Each structure stands twice: as structure tokens, then as C-alpha cells.
Amino acid sequence: MDKRHLPVLPTVSRRSLIRSGVAASAAVLAAPKTAFASFFRERYREMTPAEKREAVRRIVAQAKRDYGVTLDVGTEDVLPHVVFGYALNLSKCMGTRRCVEACVAENNQSRNPQIQYIRVLDLVHGGLDLDTSDHYFDPQEVPVAGHRYLPIQCHQCANPPCVKACPVEATWTEPDGITVIDYDWCIGCRYCMAACPYWARHFNWAKPEIPKDQVNPDTHYLGNRPRAKGVVEKCTFCIQRTRLGRLPACLEACPTGARVFGNLLDPDSDIRYVLENKTVFRLKEDLGTEPRFWYYTD
Amino acid sequence: MSRIQLAVRGTKGGVPRRGARAVVVLALGMAVLAPVAGHSDSLPPNVPAAAAPAENTDAEAQAVLAKLRQCPDARAGKTARGQTIDQAPKFTVLPRKSLLTYYPCTQCHDPAGQPNEHIRVLKDMHTDLTFEHGGGRFWCYACHDSKNMDTLASLRGTPVDFDQAYKICGQCHFEREMDWAFGGHGKRAGAFPDPRAVPLTHDKLLVRDRSQIGHWRGKRVLLDCTACHNPHRPAIGPFPPSPPPLVRTGLSRPDGKPIAATAPGLPLGSTQR
Fold first, then answer.
1. ipTM
2. Residues in chain A within 8 Å Cβ distance of B240
3. Residue A146 lies in a domain
4. What CATH code is carried by the domain that includes residue A106?
5. Total number of domains in chain A
């Protein structure tokens, strides 16, 4: 849907409004420099390198106050000739949820209220009925005979409905296929959550709670840096890792090797082998979202 | 498989209407998740392994082995692009000889000794091993070299180093070996300077050092089959699952079980249990 048809002002004229009206008085109030700068921040995509450094400095200072942790906030750009793709082997997945644990730890997700990017669905053998699937399953041991497991996370769609729904362009798809959020620009309207058919976006209803000793300091501006209350967050294929060449945390943690990740443009990559040689399908493909996340079986 | 191809072909000719596409997706989903009769290899070990054959006689085992030794070399499979396994992207295998408890085996096994090739219950040594591979029909020398205990041996008698165990496994599991070499099966290791930093142990499959497991680009260092699978009991799992997510306010469990509102969150920090 064209954004102009949404019942929202086309580009929320926050900056122009604030700049014309309130800026002068705010300046007079002589607010602390960081708060001032933070309030009048630019959007990430329009920042100069100097502005990015300044923004990173603010984030690091804020995290120091909140968690007592010195963050390493990366702003690594897209790698040339890389589009990321993910495949998951349903024959191998046993529903251990190790991916969920690793994801929460890696991506500084709120423990309370609980946010998890990956949901592992428990499907009764032979069915793909998501309505009756159970993601609260908790037997003594998995896999349970007759059950199959289907983890769902952000599918990094090539035609992402969430991006179209955002009224303030706070979320977009990077050239390497990762849909990211500028947490400083998100207004928390949650339209993207309504638009996503995979329940892949999550809202911080309260200030995220992360034990200080469990904050992951290796972060990316568009990825796992600590979020504030009132913004939406999502899986970024571990952008802070994958742009450095590492593998996503969920893949590393999988004890059965069910997950495959790689560069779709590299004909020798693992992911290309899977796509070319396995029976693959994508979830809710008929919606036309063009996910870059495939499921396959041996 | 044929069901999928038929369904896809059915839409190729005409206009792919929305309904038709939904049918294809449904068919794909059903085909993928339906019990794959006759392809037990592709199923996760949901179902407990069948009990070992009651008549697990030595004679039967010898017959199986003799049969296997006459099989043609099956490593000639090709990918969709026509590559053989030797044309897989270059990789090395993380060595794990130094992790073997008793290696070198000739410390105890006398090279001049006569190995006992008959199935029996071990009483003195290696009593911790359970022989479930192949339904208990294999004895040591299906994979180990009876002439040199410090190496493995192919069914045709070619010695294979312990660090190249995948060549032994690939004799029967050649399709899996193909997947593994091209990246569709198994896990990558990083370029470990010290092989003792190997992240996975035999039985518990504990991730010790996550930071050192590989990269999606760069040097391909693969974990050998035996890094994850115990060759004597190759099935993986079962595992105790990590805790479920908390039930969200206002929602209930689909099975009507009581809501564990006070259930603890994830054990924070590591991926280990």
C-alpha cells in the first residue's frame, strides 16, 4: 500500500515542526548536550561518518549509564556482492530451542518482559497447520515421536510488508537483504508488526531488562545494541556478526546442524548448494513476500 | 517428490492464480511434512530406534559385511550442477586424533597380534561402547583396520586416517557425505590453531567455545562426521528442550494446559544446559 493512503501524515514533520517551533526554546533551556543531540538526531541513513561516530558515542554513554557496560557499536556497511540467505533443515530440527537461547543472549533481547525473535512451532506429524501448532511445548525430551518442529524468525523478505507499512521510514531493507530498524527513528506505532505475516517483529512494551553481566557488548547500530522502551525490534540475521563474516548465533548454537547460512550470490556457498539440490519451500509463499529463508528436507 | 513436481508443473502452463499457488504451497508443505514412507534416512530420529535384531548372530554380521564389501563404489553421485564430491568447494577437516582417549591404539593392541573378528560382548576393555550402528550388525573391523590398529580401513581394505573418518562413513552414507562436503549437512569449524579447541564432544554435544565456530566465507574447515556422531551409536539426541517462552498476557496455551505465568525465563547467558 502506498504510504500516502495511510491515515497518517506522509512524512511526520517532526523535525520541521520541532525545529521551527520548539527548537529555539529548547536551546534556551540549555538541556544537557547529549540529550539535546539525541533529540535532534538524524536518521541513520542520512548520517555522515562524523555524525555516526557522534551517535555511537551517545549510545555507548547511554549503555554505560544503563548497564555499566562499555559497548562496541559497529556501523559496518554492506559487504560488496553479498545477499544473505538462510535455510533450515526440517529433517534435522529437533525442537531443542538452543537457537532461541543463543539469540536472546547474542541480541540483547529483553528478559523481562520477554522478547524472543525465534519461535519454534511444534507440529503434529504430517501437518503444517500453524493455527494448531504449539510453541509452548515443553516435554522432558525432544524430539517427541510423531512431532516435527518448525522454527520461525524474520524471513528477511525481498518484498517486505513491514517496510511498506512503516509511516516514518524507520525500517528498510539493506542491499545485502537484511531488513533493519533505526531504533532512534521508530515511533512505536507497531504497523509493521500488524503487517508481518511471520510474527517476526516485537515491541518493547517496557524498558528492556537485561542483567548487567549478560549484556553482549559486541553490537551493531542497526542490530543488537540495547533498545529503548517503545520501539520495535527484530532479527537481523545477526548483522553484527554476519557483516564481519561470522555465522548467526542461532546457527552456531544448533546442536543438530539444521541451519545453513550464506551468500546467495556466491555459487559455491552452502546456501546455494541447498537451494539447488534440496526440496525447499518458503513459508506463506503465496503472500508474495519473497522470503530469503527457506525450509528444506533431506 | 513426484507430487511436488506434478503440482508445480500444473501451474506452469496456465496463469498462476492465487488459489493455484496456494495449492502448490499446500502441496509442498504437505509433501515436506508428511511421513516420508520408505525414506527413513530423511526422518529425524523421532521414533526410537528399532530394537536390535533378536537374532543378531555373528554369522549374520559376517554375511552383511561380505555383502557390503562387494558393493560398487557409490561415490559417483553428482549435484544438480553436475559436480562430483571431488569438485566440492575446497575444505579441510578439523583434526581430532588428539581427542581420542586411547590413541595411538597400538599402545595396547599388539601389531603382531591376531584380531578377533567375531561379534561378542566385550568384558575387559571398551566396555563403555554401545554398538548400535547398523542395528548392531557391525563389528570393529567394518571400519577399523585389523592390520594396523592406528588407522581405519575402507571396506576394500584401503587404510584411512582417523582424521579422515568421513571417507569411511561416505562408503555407505554417500549422499550425506555429498551434502556435508558442499555445506548442506553438518557444521563448520573455524580455523583452529589448537585442535583441542574442538567445540563438540561425542555424546553430550556441548558447545564449548562458540566464538571459534566458523565463518560463512573464507577458509572452510569442516567438522568431521565423528565430531558430532558417535560412530558406534550415530543417532543424535534426544535432548532436553530449552524452556518454552512465557505465555503472553491474554493468551492461553492451545492445549488448554494451565498457564505457567511464573515460569522462569530463559536461563540467561550461555547456550548450555
1. 0.82
2. 140-142
3. yes
4. 3.30.70.20
5. 1
